[in-house]
């Protein structure tokens, strides 16, 4: 058995050398990037054109593909100045608002500077990010048998402004 991922967008495959910002491979945005961090400390750079006000939503896939890596993603201007950094959470997602028309570079590296032929990744680059995530404030709650417990629910809104109704049965 083997796993196959598909996407209707344009696909790009990482090619060395692209360890330095100036070696960034030109790719389509929106699109999909497939790559491999081949050795410890390997970095991959991808360059794309974007317009002011455009949104970048970059979703990383590694572990679900059987890869041992956790990605560290950052978005830069072509001069190297950093615009955005993906927060280190269970799912690596980089969201950014493009500040001006031009070219931008996405830097991909392993969080722990690892790398091997098994360190594969897939990045889905979309030009919109909207959503809603609900999280309980705590991870554990204790309720007496037959009793009740109050749970504070936090809402993370990304472009989603509609009212939210939450019910628990």
Write a brief caption for the model.
The protein has no helices and 12 strands. It is mostly beta strands and 169 residues long.
List the defining traits of the structure above.
169 residues; mainly beta; five-stranded mixed β-sheet
Provide an overview of this structure.
- The protein has 169 residues and is an all-beta fold.
- It is 0% helix and 41% strand.
- The chain contains no helices and 12 strands.
- It has strands at residues 11-13, 25-26, 31-36, 43-50, 55-61, 71-77, 82-85, 93-97, 102-110, 120-126, 131-136, 153-158.
- The radius of gyration is 19 Å and the shape is globular.
Helicity level, as a percent range?
A: under 10%
> Biggest β-sheet: count, sense, barrel?
5 strands, mixed
Q: State the separation between the terminal residues, measured CA to CA.
A: 39 Å
Structural class: mainly beta
Going across the major beta sheet, what is the strand order?
Answer: 1-3-10-5-8
The total of beta strands comes to: 12
Topology as a string of helices (H) and strands (E): EEEEEEEEEEEE
Spans where pLDDT lies below 50 across 5 or more residues: none
Radius of gyration: 19 Å
Strand content: 35-45%
Integer average pLDDT? 88
Total count of helical runs of at least 4 residues: 0
- Shape annotation: globular
Layout of strands and helices, then pairs:
Layout: E1 11-13, E2 25-26, E3 31-36, E4 43-50, E5 55-61, E6 71-77, E7 82-85, E8 93-97, E9 102-110, E10 120-126, E11 131-136, E12 153-158
Parallel strand pairs: 1-3, 2-4
Antiparallel strand pairs: 3-10, 4-9, 5-8, 5-10, 6-7, 6-9, 11-12
């Amino acid at each position: 058995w083997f796993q196959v991922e598909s996407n209707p967008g344009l696909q790009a495959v990482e090619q060395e050398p692209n360890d330095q910002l100036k070696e960034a491979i030109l790719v389509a945005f929106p699109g999909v990037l497939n790559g491999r961090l081949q050795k410890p400390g390997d970095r991959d750079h991808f360059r794309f054109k974007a317009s002011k006000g455009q949104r970048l939503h970059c979703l990383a896939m590694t572990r679900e593909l059987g890869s041992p890596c956790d990605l560290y993603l950052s978005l830069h201007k072509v001069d190297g100045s950093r615009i955005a950094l993906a927060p280190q959470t269970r799912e690596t997602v980089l969201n950014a608002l493009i500040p001006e028309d031009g070219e931008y570079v996405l830097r991909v590296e392993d969080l722990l500077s690892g790398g091997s032929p098994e360190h594969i990744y897939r990045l889905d680059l979309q030009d919109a990010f909207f959503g809603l995530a609900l999280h309980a404030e705590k991870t554990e709650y204790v309720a007496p048998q037959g009793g009740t417990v109050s749970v504070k629910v936090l809402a993370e809104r990304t472009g989603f402004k509609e009212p939210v109704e939450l019910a628990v049965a």
